[in-house]
Amino acid sequence: MPQPDHIVRIPIPDQDKLDDDILEYFNKCQEKLGLVPNVLRAYTINPEKFRNFSAFYNHLMLDEDTTGLSKLEREMIAVCVSSANRCYYCLVAHGWAVRQLSGDPELGEMIVMNYRVARLSDRQRAMLDFAWKLTLTPHDISEEDRQNLRDAGFSDQDIFDICDVAAFFNYTNRMAHGLDMIPNREYHGMDR
Description:
Layout: H1 20-33, H2 38-43, H3 47-62, H4 71-85, H5 88-102, H6 105-114, H7 122-136, H8 143-151, H9 156-179
């Protein structure tokens, strides 16, 4: 059975009514990805929040100069958190990103379903164990958990970044659930 056709369950502005900077951003997405992610279309409901969301996302997930985490590691956190939260949108969209960045179509699927079955480095496993725990039982995070990350080779800046990515996807997962956000169909067939 195909997924639903809607983007979100509340009205979004017609594309021809969007501000020029947003349309320019959409054109860059189309150029680089071959699509405009539905999450961006959803955020056009509030143009200022669209700008803040896209700027924060780009800094958090795409910038390579401000973090010791690779793009793949950040995407793995996104998928792990989204798995814990059962966020269909983010599992599809970021599962694709893991497939693309890793060159491994199985890795994205394993992290979607149960990251513990994946062959991961000790570093990656410690990172995902922490992200999973921070998502499901954040009140149980302790110095021992941070020390486990240090023992796996993460710096304190890296620990901050792991928390930042996990927290961001806990937020976006809740937005996706609350709005019944549906991912672009194209993601399903990409990098398989």
